[in-house]
User: What shape does this take?
Amino acid sequence: MFLLAIVFYFAPIPEVTDADMALQAEQSASLTGFEDKPLWQNKKLIFAVAAQFCYVGAQVAVASQFISYGKEVVGLSSKDASNRYAVGQGVFAIGRFTSAGLLLYVKPRYIMLVSAIGVMVFTILAIVLHGEAGLAMLTVVLFFESSKSTLCVFGSLQLLTHSTDQFPLILTTGIRGLGRHTKTGSSLIVAAISGGAFFPAMTGLAADRWGWNICMFVPLIGFIVSTAYGVYINTVSAKELDGFRESKIGYVEGGMVVGDVKNGGMGLDEDGARKGSVTYVEMGPVKGGRAGSSGREL
Assistant: This one.
């Protein structure tokens, strides 16, 4: 981490200011329906913070209780349960690379929803099924998901489904369209990973009282919240997210930056409001490889 910090310190990474983010959001308004509003009025951001808190908490709860579940429910020895967990971690990595590749072709909000539904469904199965029955069912599903694994305990599939980049998907979809609040919003979503300190403890307490099958209802609650967020961004926020995906603002085309400021400048006053006058090009939907545009002045 120290070496990585040094690399970032010397890397020529340009600073993206709040004014830059505000301008980009304004320029894409025709596609996204963007409206500048106070931070606390951004419902998608608030939902994303809650989803991140619950999702990360649930993910860590499943991972931290994986070996104990294998021992108590399936009847594995500590060594065998640990080996199965190692397999699960390998499948976790497969899920990461698979979903990263899918993002090149599939809208992130679709992947987010399918992944969220997957973890919710398989957590329910982990609650209601016992021993080899749950193992056999999840092994079959795992075969179709990864096309490589042949036998592993229930958590391997669960790790696969909830490792499909839900954390970065919640982060990136949550800060889309925040404009001048983007940096603050991203810090709030990142801080929400503190759910990883809450859910494992609650899962352990539930296991002591009700057993290892029933205790999985604790991470299930977290997965339900993250699934609800997936539904939200695929319904209420679908137009906004797709609009930013289609926008060419900031792209280099014909040797020029799309939407680049032509006259004047733009900044934020002490209250965070826009000040100054700026003329820019607002991009319309791309048709036939070219984007329509219209000049507008703030």
Remarks:
- The chain has a mean pLDDT of 74.
- The chain has 13 helices and seven strands.
